[in-house]
Write a structure and sequence with these properties.
The two termini are 12 Å apart. Helices cover 14% and strands 41% of the residues. The chain has 105 residues and is mainly beta. The chain is globular, with a radius of gyration of 13 Å.
């Protein structure tokens, strides 16, 4: 499976990867903190903010690679940014997917 074949959805404490061609579920990670979920695809990492916690997932498997409680910073919707994109930025997400595709070829 290639990252460019996936669509990522964050709902509550769940992150779901769907196959972009047929919509089938590829993986589900339900081990996140409850609350509003922000997603950012950063090359070969899927960064997820969920109600005061930050997670880094493997986008191909949904496995948590690392997490950070961000203790003392509060809760709520987060904006995410990296050199490859930011949350809510379609162009940045497309650029990250293209970068990942070039690296996997």
């Amino acid at each position: 499976m290639n990252i460019s074949n996936l669509i990522f959805v964050g709902l509550g404490k769940h992150v779901i990867a769907l196959h972009r061609t047929n919509g089938t579920t590829v993986w589900v990670n339900s081990n996140l903190n409850r609350g509003y979920t922000s997603l950012m695809l950063d090359g070969d990492r899927l960064v997820v903010s969920a109600n005061g916690y930050l997670y880094c997932l493997d986008p191909l498997t949904g496995k948590i690679l690392w997490s950070n409680e961000l203790k003392g910073f509060g809760m709520g919707a987060a904006s995410l940014a990296s050199v490859r994109g930011r949350s809510g930025d379609e162009a940045g997400l497309y650029a990250a997917v293209e970068d990942a595709r070039r690296q996997s070829d």
